[in-house]
Amino acid sequence: MKKKIRIIIDISMTVMLPLLMAYSLIGELFHEITGSLLFILFIIHHILNRKWYGSIPKGKYSAKRIFQTILNAFLLVFMILQPLSGILMSKHLYIFLPDFYVSALARSVHMLFAYWGYVLLCIHAGTHMLPMFTAKKVNGLKRVLYLTTGALSVYGVVAFVKRDFPGYMFGKTMFAFFDYAEPRVYFFIDYIAIMILFMMTGCLLTYVLNMISNRSPIR
User: Fold this and answer.
1) Which residue in 43, 79, 100, 194 has the most C-beta neighbors within 10 A?
2) pLDDT means per 10 residues in the chain (219 residues)?
3) How many CA atoms lie within 13 A of 59 on its CB side?
């Protein structure tokens, strides 16, 4: 039962990510509601996986474990500051809070962490997907899965540049630009392709780090 709840939460969070990136395309109120729900699911996700925190000082640290620990630490920081910055500039759900006059700073933090968070969350998800791509038996359905994810990952590189992720991630672009004349489906195809690109990046990194870890664990 607990495993099923984890899967439902993880899938829900994954679905919410591209919706949150749409921002103006889905409306500010829906964005705030979705962001709040994602943060609640993130908290539940950590509660369900709380044993991980107790294991931090224990055992050996392989290359894979070091990578996953650093990644999780960054995600924890991002997933706290991201909703906090959003609350500070809320125009709908949290208007009852006092005005702290930091909306400009909050906007910069929110924008920066939105794109970094998207990439890192996708990499994090990909680190748990390795069993899907290392099965000994490959049937027709899995071949279709491999070809589809491969093609979307390649297109994800194009979409990553097209949607100016580097500009947002390194603070060169401080305001989100949306083409309101563009069909919404094109936007979501691009962001799903970017998602799959970094999921596959996380999956590949896990595979490589597994190989390194099996050879030379770090005590």
Assistant:
1) 194
2) 84 93 90 94 90 88 91 91 91 86 84 93 90 73 85 96 94 84 94 96 92 61
3) 11
